[in-house]
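User: Reviewer 2 asked us to show a designed sequence for the structure in our supplementary figure. I'm pasting the structure tokens here. Could you produce the per-position amino acids so we can include them in the response letter?
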């Protein structure tokens, strides 16, 4: 069975039975259809009367043109619910971003803990290589669901991981690492067993997974790797080795030349917290903020980047909480992207008090924010950069509308 990971923009499926997913989609689209009917009736009443009209339901004009669920197959419902817009197919030169977890602190039904997978085309037997930014609790399960619950595709994804970068020692950014390493070890052994015994070259030890993290994290996971008997598949590099000029040779070798330079930048959060600035061989630059307050060091190091992934834990009404807990509000995160001149910014790491991130969408509705340059992330959101980035802001805004409908049920 082949695995094609390039055919969706918002890959929000799970390995759940089809019937519950259909039931959820039917409820969602039926609600949207009923709102559309009420909206049309309100328009007719307004046209036939000179009196003041009732307030029209908050509904995107694009969503209001969608057909009701009764006229759509389950495949059409799923496709509309997941993508909601026409997109260009990915290009071989693109890198692909998959959000496996977009929440903070503890997992919720809508958002798991922080984990972002980035993959790009590679030479040799592996069609794509991946690296992960933070590995919160449940990251391995989220990766499994992101490939549709297919064991073969899951093992392929695990074997393609070459690097894991961890921003700081908080549990919602590191607790998924032990299970991830154990499953990588299992997948590599299973892959070697499928190779004919006569093919000695393919039986050579696979490349080690490089884990870059603060020393406070490494001192525990190095001990864990030895106890679990998986120390032969992983190498640990302290973050201090990637400060200032960054790591070039080590990271380049570990990723097969996919990453040409990785720089860690100290930020204000807890002790030993960092952001990452990643240069790809294709010339693209990616910046990941980790958890932090607005940081001039990130703005300087990531100036002119192609993609900024920045935390936006709180909405703008909770500025005092953001300051005391050393996180960012939506406006602060957007301000960093604007000051950095980032070509596009995706917001993530939302407080679990926002089940659908509607407060963030309301904040982004301000005229001062260029809507085309900012998007909201969701678990299992997947897009290819740069081919599919133009449709991402509109897609995520429509997804917010759909989450609002589902939350109202």
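Assistant: Here is a per-position design you can include in the supplement:
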């Amino acid at each position: 069975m082949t695995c094609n990971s390039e055919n969706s923009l918002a890959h929000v499926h799970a390995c759940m039975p089809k019937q519950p997913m259909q039931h959820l989609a039917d409820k969602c689209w039926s609600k949207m259809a009923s709102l559309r009917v009420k909206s049309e009736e309100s328009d007719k009443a307004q046209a036939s009367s000179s009196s003041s009209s009732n307030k029209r339901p908050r509904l995107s004009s694009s969503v209001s043109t969608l057909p009701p669920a009764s006229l759509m197959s389950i495949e059409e419902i799923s496709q509309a619910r997941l993508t909601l817009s026409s997109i260009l197919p990915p290009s071989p030169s693109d890198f692909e971003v998959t959000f496996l977890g977009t929440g903070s602190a503890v997992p919720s039904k809508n958002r798991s803990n922080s984990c972002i997978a980035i993959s790009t085309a590679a030479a040799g037997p592996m069609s794509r290589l991946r690296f992960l930014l933070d590995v919160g609790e449940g990251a391995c399960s989220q990766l499994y669901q992101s490939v549709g619950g297919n064991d073969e595709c899951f093992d392929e994804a695990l074997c393609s991981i070459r690097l894991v970068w961890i921003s700081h020692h908080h549990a919602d950014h590191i607790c998924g690492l032990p299970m991830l390493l154990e499953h990588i070890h299992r997948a590599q052994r299973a892959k070697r067993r499928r190779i004919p015994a006569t093919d000695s070259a393919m039986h050579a030890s696979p490349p080690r997974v490089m884990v870059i993290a603060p020393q406070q994290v490494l001192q525990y996971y190095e001990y864990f790797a030895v106890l679990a008997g998986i120390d032969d598949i992983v190498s640990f590099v302290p973050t201090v080795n990637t400060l200032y000029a960054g790591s070039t040779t080590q990271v380049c070798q570990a990723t097969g030349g996919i990453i040409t330079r990785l720089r860690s930048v100290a930020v204000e959060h807890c002790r030993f917290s960092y952001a990452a600035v990643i240069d790809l061989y294709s010339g693209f630059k990616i910046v990941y903020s980790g958890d932090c307050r607005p940081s001039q060091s990130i703005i300087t190091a990531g100036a002119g980047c192609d993609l900024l992934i920045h935390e936006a834990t709180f909405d703008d009404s909770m500025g005092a909480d953001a300051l005391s807990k050393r996180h960012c509000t939506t406006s602060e995160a957007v301000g960093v992207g604007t000051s950095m001149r980032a070509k596009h910014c995706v917001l993530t790491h939302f407080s679990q008090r926002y089940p659908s991130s509607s407060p963030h969408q309301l904040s982004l509705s301000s005229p001062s924010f260029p809507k085309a340059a900012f998007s909201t992330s969701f678990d299992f959101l997947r897009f290819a950069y740069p081919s599919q980035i133009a449709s991402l802001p509109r897609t995520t805004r429509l997804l917010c509308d759909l989450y609002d409908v589902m939350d109202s049920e």
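For the response letter, you might also mention the following. Confidence is low (pLDDT under 50) at residues 4-25, 50-86. The CA atoms of residues 36 and 64 lie 6 Å apart.
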